[in-house]
Amino acid sequence: MIEDKQRWNKKYLVSPMPKESSDILINSLHYAHKGRALDIACGMGRNTHYLADNGFSVDAVDLSDYALKQVRQADNINKIETDLDSYVFEEDRYELILKINYLDRRMFPHIIKALKKGGIFICETFVKTPTIQGYHNPTNPDFHLNLDELPQAFRKLEILLYEEKDEINLRGEKVRVASFVGRK
Predict the structure, then answer these.
(1) Does 15 fall in a domain?
(2) How far apart are CA 120 and CA 112, in angstroms?
(3) What is the pTM of this model?
(4) Over the stretch 28-87, which tens digit does the pLDDT of each residue have?
(5) Where are the alpha helices (DSSP H) in the chain?
(6) Residue 8: HSE in the Cβ half-sphere, 13 Å Cα cutoff
(7) Domain range for residue 134?
(8) 158 near 166, Cβ under 8 Å?
């Protein structure tokens, strides 16, 4: 855990990070009822702040103490510094769960259980691409989804949106991204 924390702290210090809220969150927030939200791997809080500003009480979870220090102090933001490998999801707790650019497949069944009836799960992360010139692929493919993986993994949810598309990341690399919104 300490090695992971140091690695993520360094990444937040030296790597370019998005500053604006995720488009998928902005465009899908209307599906969710106001209440409690969980921002998994919240980073420096760009999406946590958006949720808090839109009436949610947010549990902002991340391993990086550096990143969490960038999340503003607010009555409706609960910062939780923890190793996500051991994070315990409370059942039927959240109206909205958000997971952007972070993948841990072991969380999938826990996310479904943590949603309240009618709760919304919003996820966007990278997809493995065939070895095609010009696409950025991970050094560890476990951190990228397979094609059409999210609809299969979350088939217990009503799928409100699913798409895979090409984007350019902050380093100017072409990447494939999966966007998913589902309702319990």
Answers:
(1) yes
(2) 9
(3) 0.89
(4) 999 999 999 999 999 999 999 999 999 999 999 999 998 999 999 999 999 999 998 889
(5) 2-14, 23-28, 46-53, 65-70, 108-114, 149-153
(6) 21
(7) 2-164
(8) no
